[in-house]
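Recap for those who missed Tuesday's class. We walked through two folding examples back to back. For each one, the amino acid string is listed first and its predicted C-alpha cells come directly after. Nothing is annotated here on purpose, so try labeling regions yourself before you check the end of the notes.
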Amino acid sequence: MIIKVLGTGCAKCNKLEEMTKEAVIELGLAAQIVKIKEVDKISAYPILMTPALVIDEEVVISGKIPTKDEMLKLILSKSK
C-alpha cells in the first residue's frame, strides 16, 4: 500500500501526514507514506484543495482533515 499526502507544507497538510502515520501504526499495516509538496506533482491529481490523501493512486480525501475514526476506516477499507 502506498499512501500519498499531498500538500505544500501548511499546518493542515502536516497534520494530515501525522494522522496518516499514526493510523498506519495503530492498524499495524505495512504501508509506504510519501509526502508530495511539489505543486506540479500535486496538480496531476484531480483535487481542488489540499491537503489531500491518495491511497494506491485513488484520491480519498481532499480539502479537509478527517477525524481519527474516519482516517482509520479509510485506510482499513483500502488495505483489503
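Example two. Treat it independently of the first, because the proteins are unrelated.
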Amino acid sequence: MPDDLRSPGPLDAFRRILGPNGILTAESDLEPYLADWRGLYRGRAMALLRPASTEEVSACVRLCAEQGITIIPQGGNTSMVGGATPEAKPNQVILSLARMNRVREIDTADMTMTVEAGLILQKAQQVAADHGTLFPLSLGAEGSAMIGGLLSTNAGGNTTVRYGNARELMLGLEVVLPDGGVINGLRRLRKDNTGYALRHLFVGAEGTLGIITAAVLRLFPAAKETATALCAVPSEDAALALFRRFRAADEGAVRAFEYMSGIGMGLVMDNIEGATLPVAPGFEHFVLVDLSASREGAGLRNLLEQVLEAAMEAGEVLDAALAESEAQRAAIWRLREEHPEAQKRAGASVKNDVSVPVSSVPELIRRSSAELVKLIPGSRPVPFGHMGDGNIHMNLEQPPEMPAADFLARAHDIMDCVNAIVRELGGSFSAEHGVGRLKTDMMEAWRGGAELAAMQAIKAALDPKGIMNPGKVLP
C-alpha cells in the first residue's frame, strides 16, 4: 500500500484506493445497506466501500486494520439473522462485494466454476446451465443472494438432501484476512491433504474471520429429466412416511422434499398475487416432491406415480397434483418459495431456523406448534422447509389482534420455547441461516465449554484487533 494512504483522513485514503465509483458516503446512498431484510436491525457506517478486485479489498482491509476501523462485509444483504448489518457505532465501514461479480473460469472437464464473491446465485446457476452443467444450490433469495455471503453462512436451501450445503459445493477459496493478507486457495482439487483445510474455517464464519473474495465451486451434470408434485397429506408422520417411500424407491432421484403447513399455504394464497393451489383446499399438511435425473429415459414420472399410488392406498397421501409442464412445476415451487414473503406481508413473525434428525421432524412440528399456541394464544405456527434434511423453519405469525411490537417483544420467549424442544430432540438452534446478531446469546448454552473456547481462540488468532464483523456469531 502506498505510504500516502496512511494519512489521517481514512475516507480520502479509501477514495484513492477505490476511485470515484468505489465509495459511497452520502446518507441517502448508504440507506439501503444499513438495515437488514427483515427490518430487525439498523446501524450506521462512515462509508460503503465497493472494491472491484481482491487487491482493492486487501488495501481497504489493511487500512482499516491500521486505523482501527471495523468492517461489515456485505453481499446481497439477505440475512435472516442480521449477519450483514452494521451496529449503531461510529468508526465502521460496510464493504460490499457487489462489484466483484465475474466468472473467472469454468471447466466442464473438472466440473468446476471459479467465481468472485459478488456473483449473484441466479447468475451462477445460469452460467452453469449455459455450459450444460448444474450448480445445484437453490433458495428463495437466489435472485439477490451472492456467492460470498452464501459461503460465509454455509447456506443450505432446497437441494441439501441431495447435494449438501454450500460447504460441500466448494473446493477452494480466495480470502482476505483481517490484516490485509490474502490466502490464494483457488485450487480445483478433490484431494489435497496438505495440512489444515483452512478454507473450511471461513465457510460459516459469517465474515468474522476474513472476507471471501472468490471461490471454486463444484458443478454437476444438468438434469435431463424431472418430475414434480404437490401432495396433501393427513399428518406430519405421513409426510415423513412419504419421504421414506421415495428414498427407498430411488434415493438418488430425490432432489428436494419440502414440507408446508395448511396455515402457511393459506398465507401464501391470501398474500401472494397469482399463487394458485393445484389441489383441493382445506388440507392441513402438504409436501412438495421434486425428482431429477441426469439421464434421459430415467422413468421419473412413472416412479412418481407408482410411489404416490402406493402412498394413497396406505392413506399417506390424500390428494396430489403432478406438474405437466415447466410452468406448472414453477407454479408449484412458487407456493414453497413465497412462504417468507407471505409471512412478511401478513404481519410480524418470529423465525426459528432449526434442525433435528430427520426421524424427529414430525415430533418437532407437532410439539412446537402446540407449545407456541399455548405461549401466545391466537398466534399462528407456520412450519415449513426441508423435511428431507431435517431443517424446518418453525416460524410463528403474530395474532391478528396483537400489536406487532408486543409480539416481537416476545421473540426470545418464542425462540426459547422452540429451542427447548429442539435440544431434547438432539438438534441445532441454527440450521442454515447462521447466528448473526440474532442468536449470539445462545452460543454459550449450546456451544459453550471447549467448543466455544476453540472458536474464540481462532477468532483471536486471526483477528486480534476484532475488526471483522463485530457482534456477530460469538457472544
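Answers for example two:
Residues 236-250 form the longest helix (15 residues).
Residues 170 and 217 are 5 Å apart (CA to CA).
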